[in-house]
Specification:
2 domains; 399 residues; seven-stranded mixed beta sheet; formyl-coa transferase, domain 3; three-stranded antiparallel beta sheet; Rossmann fold; alpha/beta
């Protein structure tokens, strides 16, 4: 765990009723910025802990720097604990169906009557409107929001290879919470912040919507789009390796041709300007692919790097653990896994992609085990040791 300077949201308490990705992302961001984020879990723990396959990384990725209290909210004693915890909160964050929180008396309309300074962050599928009754998932909104259409080939919509809208929704939930905390300093009053999957997705494809508004031409899916640049593609080179190469300005075109000795291409007046090269792509790209096909990906990378041209190896996620830049810059931080077959194993996790005062925002606490801080939190709420022992014995809480 890292030692850091004082963080901007130290002293802010966030109580979260969240699972999966969207809500936990919001809490993780606030926790990374120093807030005390308390995750309220059922006695059996957040079901996200036990997901397999593509969900196996959700809990360890999005629940670092948090505390866990495990409470049976079906009991009166458990709800008493939760209500005391909410009373101590600056922010409540949730991503359950509206009816779930309302049945518990933990919805915003109920809580604001007693706690007018409370900031309440709701993460939903849709903002209030005609769709808000629907059940949404990241993949659902990618399909209905144009992102899957833009990602896949023609007539083959394809979801993006990450939980982009869940993460975006959590990010905007955190931004909203930060803004509401600042506004509370001015007004003395809290408010509800609402963030959603669908609207996050629409924001992501907004550039394509505006392309249509500006040009009158509908955006084509990325695999068949008319690129803004002539050389902006994946090239297969020696030994079947693949590499992404880009030449996006007329200056870079000259550098590229000089570096590879393609003097005939640079001398061609029909290829002098970027827009000319874009129009010539049907013949230009096959020509360049043929010219580069005998070179290794490393040799091409070296030439591009030496000449300041954009390039990228085609990297798999698991290879990023060994990425020299991430290692050198502290972009990965050590954590200990708390769930599953590899519980107790040390690994590394990506940090927020920013620096403050020249430092990354690090890991202060591993993702918590179920109820890891239950005793600590109950003590701070005023429960005596005997009372805590009684709650544990009766199964109301888990430590």
């Amino acid at each position: 765990m890292t030692d850091q300077k004082p963080l901007p949201y130290q002293g802010v308490r966030v109580v979260e009723f969240t699972h999966m990705v969207m809500g936990p992302t919001c809490g993780m961001i606030l926790a990374d910025f120093g807030a005390e984020v308390i995750k309220v879990e059922p006695i059996e723990g957040d079901k996200t802990r036990k997901l397999l396959g593509s969900g196996a990384g959700f809990f360890p990725m999005f629940n670092r720097n948090k505390k866990s209290i495990s409470v049976d909210m079906t009991t009166q004693e458990g709800m008493d604990i939760v209500r005391k915890l909410v009373a101590s909160a600056d922010v409540v964050s949730e991503n359950f169906k509206p009816s779930t929180m309302a049945k518990l008396g933990l919805d915003y309309e109920t809580l604001k009557k007693t706690y007018p300074k409370l900031i309440y962050v709701s993460h939903k599928g849709f903002l209030p409107g005609p769709y808000d009754h629907r059940t949404a998932l990241d993949e659902v909104v990618q399909m209905m929001g144009g992102l899957a259409y833009m990602t896949g080939p023609e007539d083959r919509p394809l979801r993006a290879g990450s939980s982009v809208n869940d993460i975006m929704g959590g990010l905007f939930g955190a931004i909203g919470a930060m803004a509401a905390l600042k506004q509370r300093e001015i007004t003395g009053v809290g408010q509800q912040v609402q963030s959603s999957l669908f609207e996050s997705n629409v924001f992501l494809v907004g550039q394509h919507m505006m392309q249509y508004a500006v040009t009158g031409q509908a955006a084509k899916p990325m695999p068949s789009r008319i690129s803004a640049w002539a050389i902006y593609d994946v090239f297969e080179v020696a030994a079947g390796e693949k590499i992404f190469l880009a030449v996006v300005t007329d200056t870079q075109w000259k550098i590229f041709c000089d570096a590879f000795g393609f003097n005939d291409l640079y001398a061609n007046p029909e290829l002098l300007l970027n827009n000319q090269r874009v129009q010539a792509r049907p013949t230009l790209i096959p020509d360049i692919k043929a010219r580069l096909s005998h070179l290794t990906a490393k040799s091409i990378s070296d030439i591009f790097e030496q000449n300041g041209l954009p390039f990228a190896p085609i990297t798999k996620p698991e290879q990023l653990f060994d990425d020299p830049h991430l290692i050198a810059t502290g972009g990965l931080a050590p954590i200990t896994l708390t769930d599953g077959a590899k519980a107790g194993m040390d690994t590394q996790t990506p940090l927020l992609p920013l620096m403050m005062g020249g430092e990354r925002l690090g890991i202060r606490h591993n993702p918590p085990s179920v109820g890891e801080q239950t005793e600590e939190i109950l003590s701070h709420l005023g429960y005596t040791k005997d009372a805590v022992s009684a709650l544990i014995s009766s199964g109301v809480v888990r430590c």
